[in-house]
Amino acid sequence: MSSTNVNVNDWVLYEKEGYKARIILNRPEKLNATNMAIYKRIGELLDQIDVDPDVRVVILKGKGRAFSAGYDIGDTAEVRSILEVLSDLERYVNGTRWKIWNLTKPVIAQLQGYCLGGGCELILACDFLIGAEDLQIGEPEIQFGENPAFLMIPWVTGLRKAKELLLTGDKISGVEAERIGLITRAVPADKLEEEVEKLADKLIKIPAPAMQLQKRGINRTYETMGMNPAIDSWTDMGLWLHVLKTPEVLEFNKITKEKGVKAALAWRDEYFSK
Fold it and tell me: Which stretches of the chain are DSSP H helices?
């Protein structure tokens, strides 16, 4: 289903209930794979939420059996130059992630099923990450010759676990993700929504100015250490991988083009299982 014939408001739902706002990924048939239109829409909603005095907490979630399987590598976007790709990454994709980081209200990510690649990067800037114990989370991009555009994992997990995750592309469970500090808390899958709503109810009782300033203060600690320029400077460096193609990457891309994403992912999984 091409983004040219679908209203993006069908892919990203927005709800308000009391002091809560919910941004809901709604492509369950694609495991909520994201694309440029989705990122643009989330960014627009965050701008709206930021100046809405009736919103005190935001919940970011996905419909169906996965939060998000990642960026839609089968998206039929036109071929663009490297500079155009960089501009879109900075303005819309990473731009939306930074909007979450800088939002004046706390953001809770509700994670079930898969939270991979671009889906994982979308939630890294959230303030609270509550995941199901059987969640599968990670950034497998390196396995098909790509890289995370939003390199926040080293700042969250520390050096050793960041290298284990990002240099292998392995997925880990929600339980393990909590253990290494990648998510805030892992809970039984059937209790996920209840726990997220309970946390949201607690947060909306905090005086809004205190919440805004405390979040800014915590974030500023990491910004002072250089997190923001480190992530931003990596984004353009990572685009070299669009030029430096290896035989494995060319084969993956060929299968994607000829047989589709599902066939390419099956080939990749077989390749790494040997």
Answer: 8-11, 36-50, 82-88, 94-102, 118-124, 153-157, 159-168, 174-179, 192-203, 208-224, 227-238, 247-259, 261-273
Q: How high is the mean pLDDT of the chain? A: 91
My answer on whether 155 and 57 are in the same domain is yes
Answer with the residue of higher pLDDT: 221 or 238.
Answer: 221
The predicted pLDDT at position 241 comes to 65
CA–CA dist 91, 241 (Å, integer): 20
- Which residues does residue 185 pair with via DSSP β-bridges, in sequence order? 130
Question: In terms of Cα–Cα distance, which of 34, 12, 23 is closest to 58?
Answer: 23
* Co-location of 192 and 249 in the same domain: no
pTM over 0.85: yes
| Cα radius of gyration (the chain) | 18
Do 52 and 184 have their domain in common? yes
**Mind telling me the catalytic residues?**
121, 141
pLDDT for 52-76, tens place per residue?
999 999 999 999 999 999 988 766 4
CATH number at residue 87: 3.90.226.10
Q: Are residues 176 and 150 in the same domain?
A: yes
Number of domains the chain contains: 2
CA distance 120 to 6: 24
Quick one: pLDDT at residue 240?
Answer: 66
Tell whether 118 and 132 lie within a shared domain.
Answer: yes
Closest CA to 57 of 207, 226, 192: 207
Taking only the tens place, the pLDDT of each residue in 152-162 is 999 999 999 99
Both 54 and 190 in one domain: the answer is: yes
Instruction: Please give the full DSSP string across 113-164, using - where no structure is assigned.
Output: SEEETHHHHHHHTSSEEEEETT-EEE-GGGGGT---SS--HHHHH-HHHHHH
